[in-house]
Amino acid sequence: MKSDDFLADLEAQLRSARSPRRSPAATWLIAPAVAALLALVVLSGGGADSVEREIGAPAPDLADVQVAVFNGSTRTGLAGAAAAQLRQAGYDDVTVLNLPFTDLNRSAVIPADSGADVAAATVAAALGLAVVPSASLAADARQQAPAADVLVLLGGDRPTPAALADAAGCELRAFPSEGREHEARSFTASDYATNPPTSGAHFPEPAADGVYSPGATPPLGKLVHSLEHGRIHYQYAPVDVTPTDVNAVPNAAPALLSDLARESDGYHVLVYENTTGMTAPIAATAWTHSLTCPSAGDDQIAALRAFGDAYLDEAPERVP
Question: What is the per-residue pLDDT for 93?
Fold first, then answer.
């Protein structure tokens, strides 16, 4: 289904307040049940605990958070679908407004003031977006939504990373930080709670940006250190050319991920063969976030691209 046709169908569905049947191609904007459940998991239990640990304050009652969703594109369905996703996740006070942000090149969640950091983190988790503090953008938006605690700015016509991940059959996850200590030793997958790793103790020297040939993957401790510096990692399971292995990663995966890295001239990106025995054929990682995909087709590449746009340089240390 073409995106324009889907937006028209989505707007009709929202007006009639019915529960639509969704095809895989039509899940890139409206939040399906799986995404809503994921948001609820993130925002309660372990997910809320991770927000508390990261920011140092208790997660708020979702019903008390006032959210303003701003549509920065000409397509009203984007903001409406994001608002529907938030309501399904438990936010009762969500307002949709149209306001162009010509200088915003990506979607982002912005706390309205310094006291809304925790609320912004929970909204960002629900939508799969990054929190981007910006006093100038917040000031512009507050003129139209003076009571809002959190501002969701949808730049351009891009759907959220969570929606693209769902449409591609990928899994987008956020994790609590495992720490960031420096240890001069060798690291293995067993040293980390996630596979592939997304945070934790690491070697004092980071891996350099770039595309690594199969078999030349940097040591794991150096890779995790580069995540702490805001890098995006695109990785693929070892290529198995055995004809009987139906789950083998296509030989084209390394080239496709390399092409993806070149779209941004390789800025703060690493591409390499995974060495941790991850179960997914394709993965992208950032600090405390991961996206795992079943293949490297067009839909998956779009999800990987959105992941990189959302989480690039979103880490404890920003190193050139």
Answer: 92
Token reading at 213: 């040939």
| Mean pLDDT across the chain | 76
Show contacts of 200-207: CB within 8 Å, 24+ apart: 200/224, 202/228, 206/231, 206/319, 207/270
Does residue 203 contact residue 182 with C-beta atoms inside 8 Å? yes
Residue partners of 4: CB distance under 8 A and separation at least 6: none
Query: Is the full-model pTM beyond 0.85?
Result: no
- The whole-angstrom separation of Cα 137 and Cα 39 is 26
Q: What phi and psi values does residue 77 have, to the nearest 5 degrees?
A: -65, -25
Omega of the bond leading into 238 within 30 degrees of 0 (cis): no
Residue 112 CA: distances (Å) to CA of 10, 90, 109, 143, 206: 29, 20, 9, 11, 35
Reference 317, options 213, 203, 227; nearest CA is 227
Alpha helices in the chain (DSSP H): 3-16, 33-42, 46-55, 77-88, 117-127, 135-142, 161-167, 220-228, 253-262, 298-311
Summarised one tens digit per residue, pLDDT across range 116-130 is 888 888 898 888 787
pLDDT at 275 over 70: yes
